Amino acid sequence: MAPAFPLARRTLPALLLPALLLPALARAEGGRVMRPGAAPLQGPGRAAGALVWAHQHYRDGPPPEPPPFLGRLLGGGWDLWRLDRPAEAATITAALDPLEPGAEVLAAGTARLRSEGYRRIAVVGESRGAFIVLVALRHAPLAEAVLLMAPAAHGPRPERRPLALAAFREACAAAAPGTVRRGGLVLFADDPYDPDPAARAAAFAGGMARCGADALVIDRPAAPTGHGAAQDPAFDALFGARLAGFLGGQP
What we know:
Layout: H1 17-26, E1 28-29, E2 32-36, E3 49-54, H2 71-74, E4 78-84, H3 99-116, E5 121-126, H4 128-136, E6 145-149, H5 161-173, E7 182-187, H6 197-210, E8 214-219, H7 233-248
Parallel strand pairs: 3-4, 3-5, 5-6, 6-7, 7-8
Antiparallel strand pairs: 1-2, 2-4
Helix pairs in contact: 3-4, 5-6
């Protein structure tokens, strides 16, 4: 799938770019790795910030691209980084792609970006990627802002819903003070992977309060709907400007 955002970027001088990239690329575990996105990096001295994308579960081909609304930040001068994971099996099981190792790689990656000099870091995850970001909230400091869209890690089967809700609540309760300044959650109507939207919205708001972060919860808007609704261009039209401003720290 072609990226849904502008690719034109200024680059760092050739001698400086490897020094920026190699430390982040070296942090890999079980196929999980923080890597730069497809567009050339401006680097911490020029970019408005580092935008980290944690993609959803997938079975083949390249890792999924970010949703269209993130093009608003990338077009505004943010550098794109990715928490990429290998393709996974078709069936969701408890042993599939454990969440904590991904959270550890994410936390180490954002710490590296901060040490390289990025002034602002925002992390956005969708589906399984969002659940990994949620688990990473116990690793402080993580980022200035995070956004979780339709978090999922336990599949849609009804018998797994109690486990899914318990794991979500546990991760929210473990969010550490100082992890983030702003935390956002987007839940969609008619999402078969969501065991209890109202309970998850309340747990997330409570977790953000405990860690001292401002919370934004978009709970089941009328449209678009379904688990993959964040990828719908209508989502960008309705919520893109608001979410980009939230991630970037605009009032």
